[in-house]
Design brief:
The protein is mainly alpha-helical. It has two helices and no strands. The two termini are about 20 Å apart.
C-alpha cells in the first residue's frame, strides 16, 4: 500500500505539471491559477498519507 501511495503522489505531481504546462502554453491564466489552488490543497493530503504509510512500512515488525 505504501508503494501504491507513492505512485499516486508521483502521478498526481506529474499530471499537475503537464496540465499546467499545457494551459500555460494555451495562455489560459485562470486555469493555471485554479490548478495551483487545487494542487496546494491536494499535496498536503497525499504527502501525509505517503509519509504515514512509509513510516508504517519501515517500522513494522517482521511477522512470521
Amino acid at each position: 500500500m505504501a508503494f501504491l501511495l507513492v505512485w499516486i503522489m508521483a502521478g498526481s505531481v506529474g499530471v499537475h505539471f503537464v496540465t499546467t504546462a499545457i494551459f500555460a502554453a494555451l495562455e489560459n491564466e485562470r486555469a493555471v491559477e485554479n490548478l495551483a489552488t487545487i494542487f496546494t490543497m491536494w499535496l498536503p493530503v497525499i504527502s501525509g498519507l505517503v509519509s504515514s504509510a512509509a513510516t508504517y512500512y519501515f517500522t513494522k515488525e517482521n511477522q512470521k
